[in-house]
Amino acid sequence: MELNSFHAMLVPLAVVFSQPSFQNFALLMEGWILAGSRAMTSTALESCGPFPKHFATYYRFFSRAVWNPERLGDALLQLVLPFAPKGPVVAAVDDTIARKSGKHIWGANVHHDPLGFMPNALCFGHSWVVLAVIIHVPLVERSVAVPIYWRLYRSQKKRKGKSRHGSETKTAGTTSASTHRTRPELAVQMLRRLRQAVPGARRIEVVGDSAYGGKSVTRHLPEGVVALSRLPMDAALYALPPQRPPRCNGRPRVKGERRPTPGQMAKDPRGWQTVTVCLYGKKVRVLYKTVIALWYNSAGKIPLRIVVVRDPQGRRKDDAFFSTDANASPPSILETYALRWSLEVAFRDSKQTLGFERSQARTAHAVRRTGPFAFVSYTLTVTWFCQEGYRLYPHGISIMPWYRQKRTPSFANMLQLLQNLLRQERFCDTRQDTVVLQNLRGSCNHAYKQAA
User: Fold this and answer.
1) What's residue 252's pLDDT?
2) How many CB atoms lie within 10 A of CB 104?
3) Residue 385 has pLDDT above 90, yes or no
4) pTM of the model
5) Cα three-residue angle 191-99-51, rounded to 5 degrees
6) What does the alpha-carbon distance between residue 133 and residue 145 come to, in Å, rounded to a whole number?
7) Tens of pLDDT along 3-34?
8) Cα-Cα-Cα-Cα dihedral of 82, 93, 344, 418, to 10°?
9) Distance between CA 328 and CA 310 in Å, rounded?
10) Nearest to 111 by CA among 161, 167, 165, 154
11) Within 10 A of 163 (CB to CB), how many other CB atoms are there?
């Protein structure tokens, strides 16, 4: 029996695991996709049907097996890069909450709930910082964000005493300042990993909301990485430092004269320009002002391209954005920043259709690996659709009559196509399992030799 398109796509990932662990990964990944919104380790095994090993083996895959999630992210990146648009690689960074219940879950803490009904709503769970790459998917009009790297954010305040499940909790009640990392600092770590993994001198553009536009990010960007983010309307802007006269003693100036804030620029009725840009899949007309200035409190000496935007119809309030590339055009800054929303869509789909919040893992290794498994399955599902699945659309997809204007496939459609393929193959059927695993083992041996 030959490997189908999905199983063949998994073969390059074999270099991340040992051979037994890769077989466990392939089986769990298929079961996770088949389980859909019910996905967790137990339901993944139920979806696979009869599995060849003891069930504890698959739980130990997350808690004890020797494999590195960051190396898995590197392998995923090589799968999705061919579908990234030509030119700079656009990445999006943001954080999301996986709500949990239970005081013995490692790494869980109280975080601000952005979806809460109250202004200061809180929730208990895990806070994940995710870095995704923006790609173009066949038949899909909008760009799609596929998660590549992820880091668990841990609050600096921890419970006193030793954790029941082997965490590095300090008896003093706080973590060491040298080991604690804020969410922007975790984002910078992932950007450095992405910079090393992207081949050649290809430029990287990273977009994030205002939480990832401060000095923790802009002053620590790797070489060849450009940041785009939202700018506060009261940001203190300065002109570029003037050229120093010859034979002038003293410390040279690091910034020029004070410039108007973005809010003051917006109040001035003069100097507005009109441009038509593509935002969130639609062409809209906006008014803008632009200037090159220093945001010294955040970006230091890096000259920024500042863009102040106004909705001509007055439906949205004035806003401001910046890019660390001073030569970037205002339309490109606005269109690139709008791609950030695709990561929010990936968060929603991972939670609603792939069980991102359902994992009940408690130990440190299991928490760090089981939670993001939904992101891995999301990325592999979209990549499979880019390679082979789009040829099957819309065959086998039930289009409901109330979707009268539906023209492009959603992630739910991609997942349904892949589930239909896997159910037809019955990868985990008792009679076929041995044959397919042998073929996977042979393909893995070839991948190991190439990696060596």
Assistant:
1) 86
2) 10
3) yes
4) 0.89
5) 85
6) 5
7) 678 989 999 999 999 989 999 999 999 999 99
8) 30
9) 19
10) 154
11) 16
